[in-house]
């Protein structure tokens, strides 16, 4: 009545009309409700007459009225309850049937896989690339591969499946899929990509954005199957690599500075049940395909790759993805928790062929060793040997519980079609032969094989039939669930619902309005569809219970904060949460990552605390050992875990589970370029320690090298997909002992010499306690040398390591020498210019020395300057014209002509001084006796000289040639 009078008090006609209509409507509805079903039927006419009465009252209006009716408090109807219980019974019966079908399907699938073999080997031939000719590998049919050997000989290999070069990713995955399905049935599984480097292992596993590989497809299939299976699963994702025999977590952010703590080592442990556990490996709970894919891409970016002769983005490690699945409400599964490993093995390579050296060689050797260990293990398993050599490599240790009995193993051997790769192809195929079920000498007869194939086909058909039935039942259950939802939400019986939905058939279907409410991206609420004056106030809302009913009906664990859009978009899969995830536990052991992203983390805390009541909480499972460390981080981040609010969910069995949203984990990488696209692969590795420019003693140097070694695997860690700018910034971090270098730019001999010179060099002004400056009057003609503690002698400066020609001049200068002078006397750049001018001007030695003295005053001793000068002149013996003249001569002629060389402009010194110079140099060689810095100096000069001559075509002039002898003669 209040409403009525308020409405009538309105002056506007329209509102009066609406109010009148509403009044009439409510009255009629009340009467209808009182007069039971018949009255409800009359409602339609009543509303239609009202619509006729006021033509501007549209179907939307009618629908709004329907909404109100639906949300009116409904007096307990027994009919309702009967409907509900009937539907529930039906659903239960159908679920039971599905479960029965699941058991049947599981059994059939297992029989099928047993028939196929628990260890299966596929072979995939890479397509020819541009410029490659047809090679010796021919895929005869779907199970035979022909290899053309020398002398017209051929060999046929038989595999469970052969994929020719034209095979698609779809085709490959269809063969892999049964194994993935068996994972949901509780079996452990391993899928390997094996083969020579550059044959397409990563292509098969990772794929491209256009044709995704096995890993993304597996993740998708797992989630799809999980939804279909009618059970709730907890899925966790981990990713690691085995690089040079070390395990590295690919989901943990890398420390950016040396002061950042290193993540704890990954340790392989065996639990009492014989299962393998990797201590400290991060395991992130994922609730849908997209989250898992993001983590996968993140891991791919951190993987170690490098450019090799065979592949520009060669994987230098074994990349291993672990997806663990736990299901608490399916006792018929083989085990409660099981896992699948997806392994992109490092490429096998013949180091002789790849000509790898240094780290590439070590990587190649480590990969080959572990591959051979893997071959041994699978071979032993096939032969059912009593001893399985799991312990021979980290790879087989990690996979121990996923390779044996009750596990499915799939090996995809990749071969190259190239002629030049024949040897590697034979090696790969022999490896495949070794691990496959059907061994030479035990080949099945054609009859047995055809019988087996028929049986497999039969099983396959049965499975497909069951799949269809399941789908049909699932659709039925879905319909019933929808009906049930409507019942509980509206309180109307099924018949009444039908009536009402019929009423609103002029506008959008009634269901749509509610669906829109549930699908958060259309944020329209039922309220917004009402005429404004009919919308409930805050007080009236609580009375009608409209919102409450809507929320509860649509999503039992919906947050009160109404963040519908996010949920509706992301949650497609029932995920269990861990009730024991309480605030005792914390977030991350990667303190460095937390530190680096502290701000982000704190920001996220707020979001997290809101989200905790939602169903889509993601979990990071950490090992117990790090609880204390995690706790501190957790407290720092201010995150609190909330126990699961959904009572139907079972308690978590992981004691050491902490709660963190996967999104937050990904946020730790927010500074990295987008991880949403296909992971770009680049060639950055931390390859070599870059020495600092300061002068160090050999002791200091050793200490630094040792400390660098302590950085362990993180020296080599990839910081992929970073912009050049970021890399440079990283290089400039003070105190950083290691830095990144491009693999395709190895340090040159010159770099190494320059580095060695710098590290050996001790200027007179920088001589430390252990070193004394001696003036060797008698032997070295006034040369100032450094007497090192170990008895070796060093000149005050190491000499140049090459000659350089100035653009505007016609002379060769030893520029590093000039730099050395600059370093030792600590002169400014302007003085430097003067040095070069004076030192190489056509003046005599005395002039030069006096000029130099003039520049440096007391800082540099005359003898020191003289020493520099003499050396520079010795190196600058040959001018450009002479070089050109000698380009026509033989080495012998050059050797003979060297003494006749006219002194260059910088060698205008008198006979006595020339003699002194020669004496100095000769004595220098004698005294150092081919060791120490003088010897290195001599070698460098020889190298410089030889380089120059080699450049002119005198290739037979080696390093042994005594350049100084040539001078004396
Ligand atoms: N089936 C295929 N279809 C199209 N391209 C392929 C196929 N197989 C391989 N490739 C291409 O060959 C190149 C090398 O492949 P990939 O990097 O996957 O080799 P790999 O075996 O993983 O090498 P490595 O062991 O050195 O990491 C890539 O450019 C890849 O796209």
Structure description:
Residues 545-571, 633-655 are annotated as: Disordered. It comes from Durio zibethinus. Belongs to the TRAFAC class myosin-kinesin ATPase superfamily. Kinesin family. KIN-14 subfamily. The protein has 969 residues and is of the alpha+beta class. Strands 1, 5, 6, 7, 8, 11, 14, 15, 16, 17 and 18 form an 11-stranded mixed sheet that branches. A 3-stranded antiparallel sheet has the order 2-3-4, covered by helices on one side. α1 (2-9) runs antiparallel to α2. The longest helix has 45 residues, at 446-490.
Please render the helix and strand layout as text.
Layout: H1 2-9, H2 13-34, H3 36-53, H4 59-71, H5 78-116, E1 119-125, E2 137-139, E3 144-148, E4 154-158, E5 161-163, H6 169-184, E6 188-195, H7 201-205, H8 214-228, E7 234-243, E8 246-249, E9 267-270, E10 276-279, E11 283-286, H9 289-302, E12 305-306, E13 314-315, E14 318-326, E15 337-344, H10 351-354, H11 358-382, H12 394-398, H13 400-403, E16 407-415, H14 422-435, H15 446-490, H16 494-503, H17 510-518, H18 538-544, H19 546-554, H20 564-570, H21 591-596, H22 598-611, E17 619-621, H23 627-637, E18 657-659, H24 662-667, E19 684-689, H25 698-710, H26 724-731, E20 738-742, H27 749-760, E21 772-776, H28 777-780, E22 783-787, E23 793-794, E24 804-805, E25 812-813, H29 815-825, H30 829-840, H31 845-856, H32 862-875, H33 880-886, H34 891-897, H35 911-928, H36 932-951, H37 963-968
Parallel strand pairs: 1-5, 1-16, 6-15, 6-16
Antiparallel strand pairs: 2-3, 3-4, 7-8, 7-11, 7-14, 9-10, 11-17, 12-13, 14-15, 17-18, 19-20, 21-22, 22-23, 24-25
Helix pairs in contact: 1-2, 2-3, 3-16, 5-6, 5-15, 6-8, 8-9, 11-14, 15-19, 30-31, 31-32
Bound molecules: adenosine-5'-triphosphate.
Protein name: Kinesin-like protein KIN-14T isoform X1
Binding site for ATP: 195-202
Domain Kinesin motor: 118-438
């Amino acid at each position: 009545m209040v409403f009525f009078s308020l409405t009538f008090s309105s002056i506007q006609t329209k509102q009066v009309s609406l109010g009148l209509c509403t009044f009439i409507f409510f009255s009629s509805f009340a009467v209808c409700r009182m007069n039971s079903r018949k009255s409800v039927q009359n409602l339609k006419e009543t509303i239609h007459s009202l619509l006729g009465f006021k033509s501007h009252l549209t179907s939307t209006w009618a629908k709004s009225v329907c909404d109100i009716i639906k949300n009116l408090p409904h007096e307990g109807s027994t009919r309702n309850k009967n409907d509900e219980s009937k539907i529930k019974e039906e659903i239960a019966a159908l679920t039971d049937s599905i479960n029965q079908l699941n058991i049947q399907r599981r059994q059939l699938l297992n029989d099928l896989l047993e028939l196929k073999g628990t260890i299966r080997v596929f072979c995939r031939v890479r397509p020819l690339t541009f410029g490659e000719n047809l090679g010796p590998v021919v895929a005869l049919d779907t199970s035979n591969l022909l290899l053309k050997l020398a002398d017209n000989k051929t060999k046929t290999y038989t595999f469970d499946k052969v994929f020719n070069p034209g095979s698609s990713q779809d085709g490959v995955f269809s063969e892999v899929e049964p194994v993935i399905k068996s994972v949901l049935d509780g079996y452990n599984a391993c899928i390997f990509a094996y083969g020579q480097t550059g044959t397409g292992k990563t292509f098969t596993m990772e794929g491209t954005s256009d044709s995704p590989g096995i890993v993304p497809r597996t993740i998708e299939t797992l989630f799809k199957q999980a939804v279909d299976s009618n059970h709730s699963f907890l899925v966790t994702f981990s990713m690691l690599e085995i690089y040079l025999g070390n395990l590295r977590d690919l989901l943990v952010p890398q420390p950016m500075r040396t002061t950042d703590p290193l993540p704890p080592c990954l340790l392989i442990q065996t639990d009492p049940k014989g299962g393998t556990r990797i201590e400290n490996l991060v395991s992130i709970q994922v609730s849908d395909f997209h989250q898992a894919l993001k983590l996968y891409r993140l891991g791919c970016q951190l993987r170690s790759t490098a450019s090799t002769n065979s592949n520009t983005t060669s994987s230098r490690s074994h990349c291993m993805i672990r997806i663990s699945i736990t299901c608490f409400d399916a006792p018929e599964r083989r085990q409660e928790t099981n896992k699948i490993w997806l392994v992109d093995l490092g490429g096998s390579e013949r180091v002789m062929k790849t000509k790898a050296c240094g780290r590439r060689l070590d990587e190649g050797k480590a990969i080959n060793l572990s591959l051979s260990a893997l071959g041994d293990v699978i071979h032993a398993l096939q032969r059912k040997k009593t001893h399985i050599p799991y312990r021979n490599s980290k790879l087989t240790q990690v996979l121990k519980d996923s390779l044996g009995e009750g596990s499915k193993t799939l090996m995809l051997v990749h071969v190259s079609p190239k002629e030049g790769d024949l040897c590697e192809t034979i090696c790969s195929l022999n490896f495949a032969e070794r691990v496959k079920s059907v061994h030479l000498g035990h080949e099945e007869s054609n009859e047995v094989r055809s019988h087996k194939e028929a049986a497999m086909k039969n099983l396959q058909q049965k499975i497909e039939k069951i799949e269809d039935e399941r789908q049909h039942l699932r659709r039925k259950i879905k319909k019933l669930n929808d009906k049930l939802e409507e019942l509980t939400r509206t309180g109307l019986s099924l018949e009444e619902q039908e009536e009402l939905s019929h009423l609103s058939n002029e506008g959008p279907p009634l269901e749509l309005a509610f669906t829109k409410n549930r699908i958060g991206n259309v944020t329209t609420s039922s309220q917004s569809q009402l005429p404004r004056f009919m919308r409930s106030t805050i007080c009236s809302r609580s009375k009608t219970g409209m919102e409450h009913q809507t929320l509860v009906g649509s999503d039992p664990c919906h947050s009160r904060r109404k963040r519908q859009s996010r949920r509706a978009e992301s949650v497609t899969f029932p995920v269990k949460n861990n009730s024991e995830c309480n605030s005792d536990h914390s977030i991350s052991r990667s303190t460095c990552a937390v530190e680096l992203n502290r701000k982000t983390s704190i920001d996220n805390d707020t979001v997290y605390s809101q989200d905790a009541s939602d169903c889509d909480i993601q979990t990071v499972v950490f090992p117990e050992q790090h609880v204390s460390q995690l706790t501190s981080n957790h407290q720092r981040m201010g995150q609190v875990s909330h126990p699961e609010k959904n009572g139907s969910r079972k308690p978590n069995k992981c004691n050491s589970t902490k709660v963190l949203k996967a999104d937050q984990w990904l946020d730790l990488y927010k500074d990295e370029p987008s991880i949403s696209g296909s992971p770009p692969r680049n060639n950055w590795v931390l390859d070599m320690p870059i020495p600092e420019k300061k002068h160090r003693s050999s002791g200091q140097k050793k200490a630094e090298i040792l400390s660098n070694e302590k950085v362990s695997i993180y020296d080599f860690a990839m910081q992929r997909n970073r912009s050049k700018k970021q890399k440079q910034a990283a290089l400039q971090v003070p105190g950083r002992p290691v830095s990144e270098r491009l693999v395709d730019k190895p340090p040159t001999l010159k770099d190494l010499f320059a580095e060695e010179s710098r590290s050996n060099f001790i200027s007179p002004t920088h001589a430390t306690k252990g070193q004394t400056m001696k003036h060797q009057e008698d032997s070295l003609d006034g040369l100032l040398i450094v007497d090192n503690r170990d008895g070796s002698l060093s000149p005050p400066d190491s000499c140049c390591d090459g000659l350089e020609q100035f653009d505007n001049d016609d002379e060769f200068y030893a520029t590093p020498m000039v730099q050395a002078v600059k370093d030792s006397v600590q002169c400014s750049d302007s003085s430097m210019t003067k040095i070069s001018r004076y030192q190489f001007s056509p003046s005599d030695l005395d002039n030069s020395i006096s000029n130099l003295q003039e520049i440096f005053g007391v800082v540099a001793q005359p003898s020191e300057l003289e020493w520099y000068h003499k050396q520079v002149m010795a190196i600058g013996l040959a001018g450009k014209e002479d070089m050109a003249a000698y380009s026509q001569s033989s080495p012998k002629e050059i050797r003979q002509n060297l003494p006749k060389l006219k002194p260059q402009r910088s060698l205008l010194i008198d006979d006595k001084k020339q003699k002194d110079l020669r004496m100095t140099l000769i004595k220098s060689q004698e005294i150092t006796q081919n060791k120490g810095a003088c010897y290195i100096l001599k070698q460098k000069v020889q190298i410089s000289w030889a380089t120059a001559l080699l450049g002119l075509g005198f290739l037979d002039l080696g390093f042994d040639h005594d350049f100084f002898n040539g001078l004396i003669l």
